[in-house]
Amino acid sequence: MTLAYVAIGSNLGTPVEEVEQALEDLGSIAQTVLVKRSSLYRSKPLGYADQPPFVNAVALLDTALPAERLLDALQAIEAQHGRRREVQAQAEGQEEKEEEGRAQAGDLLRRR
Predict the structure, then answer these.
(1) Residue 101 maps to which CATH number?
(2) What is the pTM of this model?
(3) Residue 91 is part of which domain span?
C-alpha cells in the first residue's frame, strides 16, 4: 500500500460543507482508505486574489492505486463537486502548475 497526502480546499458556495463532503467522498475511492484528516482552517487566496478566502484540510490516504489512477479518482471527486478548472487558469502559470502536478504525482506518494 502507498500513503498519499491530499490537500482539499473550497471557497465557493458553502465551503465548510464542501470540504467535509469531499473528505467523506475520499472513502469511496476503490482500494483506498482514509487514514487521518486534519481540522479545517481558513486561508487567503493566492495568485488570483479577487475571490473569497478558502476553507482547507489535508487527508492521509492509504491506497493500492498507482499515482495516476488516484489522481483520476481525486479529479472525478472534484468534478462531482462542480470544480471548473478554467477559472483557476486565470492565475498566472496555472496550466503549467497543473501539468507539473500530474507529472510529479508519483513523487507525493510514499511506499511503506
Answers:
(1) 3.30.70.560
(2) 0.73
(3) 2-111
